[in-house]
């Protein structure tokens, strides 16, 4: 490719000149192509360390003049063909022209101008494509990654960085490649190659640290090893991207959400150098998540852009510096100083957006007016024209707010339960305090606005910490949680869900019914059917909306509190905000979010209260107490009137206030906890403390909890004012920020999800220990290999989606499943029966045998069942499995349908006979009091229906299969059976003896089948023989038929050995016109399907002189008895197989780290040319 001319001072240091003329030199880089020696090896190492393979092509063309020592690089090429084309063009088009120039400066100026013109023309032609595609350097790096690590095209590179990988005490300089599913590292130093591949799903810890040994490094931990990477140019950017990729992998393990590039994510107008489209998408995704968390917006909100500006605040009469955020449905503002001011303006509320007059005091202002007569003035906007146009575009797509109010009002739950069951209270401290709070909030509304567009300031927080009055609690909970926006934009949604879920039964509805009467039974609102019915409707509607969560214990407690202050529809949307945004993953089947925050709480305790943490860990208390605290927001462990104030703070501040209060509770009880000798004593201390956290501004007496009732002391414990507790938590732990919590959550999420995966593995291994003879270690290794194959097919396979393959709601044994392709790969790598080219056929047969539900997927239990039979079964079990592999599947053939029809006929006949007997009995005239023995028997037979039920149940019970239950094998299946055995013996030390033995056994079985045919079909054979053959020829028939069968067998074995075979033919075989139909040939229950779908048939090739005998068959007992006559075969099948070597080989294919003492990178570069 042509490049902008640049000066080159060192011409021969790392390059070899191959062509030259008076003005141009074509050079090849040392270490590339032929030759090289030590200098080539050094250059190859330098290329990897400095990424020269990406920036410096192996060929270049230099411009030179006779009088100058300065050279100009004007072209480069990755292959000899490319650079030769450029060289030929220079010689044809420029060489004669520049030879007539007198001045060298003119030559250089002319050539540089010509090259620049060519480059400009190429850019103009490719300008449209380059804006959408990644830069050339990045595409080259992606190809290099796939080539080095054997990745398919489905594996997308996100970004790559230069760094050092610490192998022991030695840093290896190279490049780390971060793809969607893997972290890869490559280094090539002085002939030593280091390759590292770590799937993100195996990462258990990811942290950035700085030590004396590893300065400013990133540690990536898996279950077995730790890897250190350092010397990044931008370690923060690298670490953030690693966090995002690991988070996506954990999400895949949790609920199948595989990553897909979101097309609606904003893209820069210009292509950034060396940044992939995926990297830009990840950056935009991270900004979106932060934006939504900051303003409590819904998951479908996409940030369009943000800019610095100032906001005029009428309450403070000043301009506040901050950032303006624009998304598809909202305009938001956040001050630079935390908690100074925050503003959310839904576009559905905007009426006018206009440019105001600029002045020196108010440069570039924009005025935004809402429908409730509020006006917001933003100034100091850099690109005001574009901003106004962008907002106008979004406004045109926003439905008018009148559209949201067209649905009829809901008739269910129009009032909160507290309004329905409000009790008149005496005029004392309670009502006065409530009225004072109401007055304070009314003043706040008049000054800062009311509703979604309210200014949220430090004054707002103060009012929330002092407690929200009951009459405003529902409104402000909706506002601070963001649920008000969903309520306004989804009219009638809740009513529709209630109707759809009505009458539906599921596991979730059963659990809901069980917990309904356990939800705040002490409160009057839930002591009657009105409150219970409202709670049932809200929980059932949410379970119907989000079946992935359905219902989880503790949801009933939280929802019952929401219903006290909100209508049903409002409570529903608050529950949505809690479960899906504010407490993510808290209420799924494994309460992962609560376990993550439990781990965060332990880390906070370790850093804030180290002495107490050590003692609590010894007692095992933290994990016990914190789960209930977080799941119910203290509602289940604290008096209701006190806990509801924490819920007020939670909806405004988020989860940080729960952490603050929990740490304060431990701090206040530190001395008592340190003196506790066991877990029970510590639990009692905390329980009594929380029971005595009171709200002195309430009228109703606190309802004591179980701890206070069961524990008694000489002195009652002191009361703790909830307001003092909240104030103390802000004073002592108020520095805790949401960003710190999110960082700690990420660390714990890796640990928790990987711990859950380990628990699943242990459960599977325990379940399979009784069903297979593999050891615990072998089962664990097999589980890891099986899971890896499953996950690989999820993110690389296209035959079925990940949701179909991985369902965390299934039992552990059935969560991971593989299809026939992955099964064949594992079978080839692990099975002891490797049959060369016949392995794939054998694998497909075993897959169909194990796939009992015929969903084209095999789970781990089925996989181990088949593998265990091959490794640990005795000779009979191994032969039984091998025998069954050559019989068609038993429930999908025409014969099976025929048998079903025949059975149906028999059942109908018996039923009609039974009914006719019953009718006859009923029609007989019997004198009163006179019953014959026949009548008694008939009555008994008619009434004893339990007998038939018992018989039916007994038939349905799974019966242990014996060798007598196996169907007979016909001649065609037998030939395939022999072919498989023949292939199994290749490369065995006793190969020749085994071949001779199987030939002897096969010949014996062929004759056994002939004898059995005569005895089984003697009458039919007699008749056929008398019609077609003379009696004297009957004795000659058997050798001919045997010869025909042996000819078929010889041909099959010859085919398996890929050698030509000579078939013996006879006139009898050519004249054989026996009926050819695949059917049941014995009185057994062999169910044949179309054999073309199951096996590779020898006889289907219409060989001359060989025909299959459809009346020929043998039993498994005959096969077993014949094989027992050959000691070498007995020794082969009784031989103990070791799977360890197979598993080691299979793991080597998923290589984690390897060192190769060969310059493979140089070879790869050479082959790429």
TrEMBL record:
Residues 1017-1044 are annotated as: Disordered. The keyword Calcium applies. Keywords: Calcium, GTPase activation, Membrane, Metal-binding, Phosphoprotein, Repeat, Transmembrane, Transmembrane helix. One of its GO terms (cellular component) is membrane. It is a single-pass membrane protein. Residues 467-654 form the Rab-GAP TBC domain. This is TBC1 domain family member 9B. The lineage of its organism: Eukaryota, Metazoa, Chordata, Craniata, Vertebrata.
């Amino acid at each position: 490719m042509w490049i902008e001319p640049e000066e080159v001072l060192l011409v021969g240091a790392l390059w070899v000149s191959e062509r030259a003329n008076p003005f141009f030199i074509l050079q090849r880089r040392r270490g590339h192509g032929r030759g090289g020696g030590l200098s080539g090896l050094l250059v190859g190492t330098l290329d990897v360390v400095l990424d020269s393979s990406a920036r410096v092509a192996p060929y270049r063309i230099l411009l030179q003049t006779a009088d100058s020592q300065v050279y100009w690089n004007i072209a480069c090429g990755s292959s000899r063909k490319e650079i030769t084309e450029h060289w030929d063009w220079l010689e044809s088009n420029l060489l004669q022209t520049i030879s007539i120039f007198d001045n060298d400066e003119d030559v250089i100026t002319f050539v540089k101008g010509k090259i620049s013109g060519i480059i400009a023309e190429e850019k103009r032609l490719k300008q449209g494509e380059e804006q959408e595609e990644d830069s050339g350097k990045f595409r080259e790096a992606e190809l290099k990654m796939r080539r080095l690590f054997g990745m398919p095209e489905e594996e997308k590179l996100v970004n790559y960085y230069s760094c050092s990988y610490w192998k022991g005490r030695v840093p290896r300089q190279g490049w780390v490649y971060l793809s969607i599913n893997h972290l890869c590292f490559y280094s090539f130093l002085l002939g030593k190659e280091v390759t590292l591949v770590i799937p993100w799903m195996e990462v258990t810890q990811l942290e950035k640290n700085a030590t004396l040994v590893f300065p400013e490094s990133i540690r990536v931990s898996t279950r077995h090893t730790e890897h250190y990477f350092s010397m990044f140019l931008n370690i923060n950017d690298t670490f953030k991207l690693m966090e995002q990729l690991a988070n996506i992998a954990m999400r895949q393990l949790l609920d199948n959400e595989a990553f897909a590039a979101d097309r609606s994510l904003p893209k820069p107008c210009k292509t950034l150098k060396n940044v992939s489209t995926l990297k830009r998408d990840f950056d935009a995704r991270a900004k979106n998540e932060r934006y939504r968390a900051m303003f409590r917006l819904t998951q479908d909100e996409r940030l369009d852009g943000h800019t610095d500006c100032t906001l005029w605040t009428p309450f403070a009469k000043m301009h506040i510096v901050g950032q303006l955020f624009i998304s598809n449905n909202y305009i938001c503002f956040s001050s630079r100083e935390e908690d100074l001011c925050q503003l959310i303006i839904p576009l559905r509320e905007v009426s006018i957006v206009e440019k105001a007059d600029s002045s020196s005091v108010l440069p570039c202002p924009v005025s935004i007016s809402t429908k409730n007569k509020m006006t917001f003035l933003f100034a100091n906007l850099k690109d005001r024209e574009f901003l106004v146009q962008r907002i106008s575009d979004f406004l045109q797509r926003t439905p008018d707010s009148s559209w949201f109010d067209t649905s009829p009002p809901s008739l269910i739950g129009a009032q909160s339960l507290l309004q329905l069951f409000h009790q008149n209270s005496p005029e004392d401290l309670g009502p006065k305090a409530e009225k004072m709070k109401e007055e304070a909030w009314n003043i706040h509304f008049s000054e800062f606005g009311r509703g979604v567009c309210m200014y949220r300031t430090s004054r707002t927080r103060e009012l929330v910490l002092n407690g929200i009055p009951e009459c405003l609690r529902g409104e402000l909970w909706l506002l601070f949680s963001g649920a008000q926006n969903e309520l306004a934009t989804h009219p009638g949604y809740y009513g529709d869900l209630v109707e759809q879920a009505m009458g539906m039964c599921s596991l979730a509805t059963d659990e809901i019914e069980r917990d309904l009467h356990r939800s705040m039974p002490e409160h009057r609102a839930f002591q009657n059917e009105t409150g219970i019915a409202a709670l049932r409707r809200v929980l059932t509607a949410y379970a119907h909306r989000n079946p992935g969560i359905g219902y989880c214990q503790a949801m009933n407690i939280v929802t019952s509190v929401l219903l006290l202050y909100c209508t049903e529809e409002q409570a529903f949307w608050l529950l949505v905000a809690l479960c899906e945004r504010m407490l993510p993953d808290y209420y799924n089947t494994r309460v992962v979010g609560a376990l993550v925050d439990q781990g965060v709480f332990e880390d906070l305790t370790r850093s804030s209260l180290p002495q107490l943490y050590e003692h609590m860990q010894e007692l095992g208390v933290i994990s016990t107490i914190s789960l209930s605290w977080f799941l119910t927001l203290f509602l289940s462990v604290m008096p209701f009137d006190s806990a509801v104030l924490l819920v007020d703070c939670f909806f405004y501040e988020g989860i940080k206030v729960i952490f603050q209060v929990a740490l304060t509770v431990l701090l206040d009880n530190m001395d008592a906890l340190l003196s506790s000798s066991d877990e029970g004593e510590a639990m009692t201390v905390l329980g009594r403390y929380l029971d005595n956290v009171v709200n002195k501004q309430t009228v109703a007496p606190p309802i004591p909890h179980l701890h206070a009732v069961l524990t008694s002391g000489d002195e009652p414990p002191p009361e703790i004012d909830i307001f003092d507790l909240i104030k103390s938590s802000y004073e002592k732990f108020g520095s805790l920020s949401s960003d710190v919590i999110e960082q700690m959550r990420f660390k714990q999420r890796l640990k928790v999800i990987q711990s859950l995966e380990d628990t699943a593995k242990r459960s599977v291994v325990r379940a399979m220990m009784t069903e297979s003879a593999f050891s615990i270690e072998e089962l664990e290794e097999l589980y890891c290999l099986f899971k890896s194959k499953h996950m690989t097919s999820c993110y690389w396979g296209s035959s079925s989606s990940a949701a179909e393959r991985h369902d965390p709601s299934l039992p552990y044994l059935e969560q991971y499943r593989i299809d026939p392709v992955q099964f064949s790969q594992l079978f080839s790598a692990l099975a002891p029966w490797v049959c060369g080219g016949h392995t794939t056929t054998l694998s497909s047969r075993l897959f169909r045998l194990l796939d009992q539900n015929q969903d084209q997927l095999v789970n781990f239990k089925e996989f181990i069942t088949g593998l265990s039979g091959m490794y640990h079964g005795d000779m009979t079990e191994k032969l039984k499995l091998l025998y069954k592999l050559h019989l068609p599947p038993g429930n999908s053939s025409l014969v099976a349908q025929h048998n079903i029809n025949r059975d149906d006929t028999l059942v109908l006949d018996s039923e009609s006979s039974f009914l006719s007997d019953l009718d006859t009995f009923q029609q007989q005239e019997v004198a009163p009091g006179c019953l014959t023995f026949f009548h008694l028997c008939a009555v008994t037979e008619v009434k004893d229906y339990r007998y038939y039920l018992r018989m039916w149940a007994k038939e349905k019970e799974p019966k242990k299969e014996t060798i007598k239950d196996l169907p007979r094998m016909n001649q065609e299946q037998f030939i395939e059976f022999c072919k498989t055995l023949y292939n199994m013996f290749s490369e065995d030390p006793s190969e020749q003896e085994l071949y001779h033995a199987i030939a002897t056994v096969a010949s014996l079985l062929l004759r056994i089948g002939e004898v059995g045919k005569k005895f089984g079909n003697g009458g039919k054979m007699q008749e056929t023989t008398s019609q077609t053959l003379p009696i004297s020829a009957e004795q000659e028939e058997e050798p001919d038929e045997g010869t025909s069968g042996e000819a078929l067998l010889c041909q099959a074995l010859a085919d398996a050995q890929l050698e030509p075979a000579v078939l013996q033919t006879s006139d009898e075989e050519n004249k054989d016109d026996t009926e050819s139909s695949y059917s049941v040939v014995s009185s057994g229950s062999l169910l044949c399907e179309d054999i073309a779908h199951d096996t590779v048939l020898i006889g289907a090739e219409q060989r001359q002189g060989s025909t299959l005998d459809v009346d020929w068959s043998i039993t498994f007992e005959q096969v077993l008895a014949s094989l027992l006559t050959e000691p070498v075969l007995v020794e082969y099948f009784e031989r103990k197989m070791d799977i360890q070597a197979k598993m080691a080989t299979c793991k080597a294919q998923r290589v984690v780290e390897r060192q190769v003492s060969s310059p493979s990178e140089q070879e790869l570069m050479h082959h790429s040319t």
